[in-house]
Specification:
By secondary structure, the chain is mostly helical. The chain contains five helices and no strands. Helix 1 crosses helix 2 and helix 2 runs antiparallel to helix 3.
Length: 116
């Protein structure tokens, strides 16, 4: 096996420009409706890789891909809802024990009842 003639990348500015051009292309593909590009852009925003971390943008892009049926995007969006990252807080979600009437005794005790 021969030694690689590639020099190590010493100039981070060059690396940044390369990443920027790939990110611009990914954004363009996502805007044009590619569910995979939308999912990947969401992942970049969620992780803060190559762009500033923005959970709301991540949820937006995951949602666009999820609406097109991309299962991994549906999972990622669901995980963001479960953690409350980048999504609106909603006390009216299904399964919320205080959903019916916040002042009712049933709402206060539902979910905390123990088997008798």
């Amino acid at each position: 096996m021969g030694a690689s003639s590639a020099a190590p990348m010493e100039n981070s500015e060059i690396a940044g420009k390369a990443a920027g051009s790939h990110l611009a292309r990914l954004h363009q593909d996502a805007e044009q409706g590619s569910p995979l590009a939308q999912y990947l852009l969401g992942a970049f925003y969620q992780l803060g890789e190559a762009i500033p971390q923005d959970y709301a943008e991540a949820a937006n892009w995951y949602g666009r891909a999820a609406d097109q049926g991309l299962a991994v995007a549906q999972f990622a969006l669901g995980a963001m809802y479960a953690r409350g990252e980048g999504v609106p807080e909603d006390d009216q979600l299904i399964g919320n024990p205080r959903r019916s009437d916040p002042g009712s005794a049933e709402a206060d005790t539902r979910g905390s009842r123990t088997a008798r």
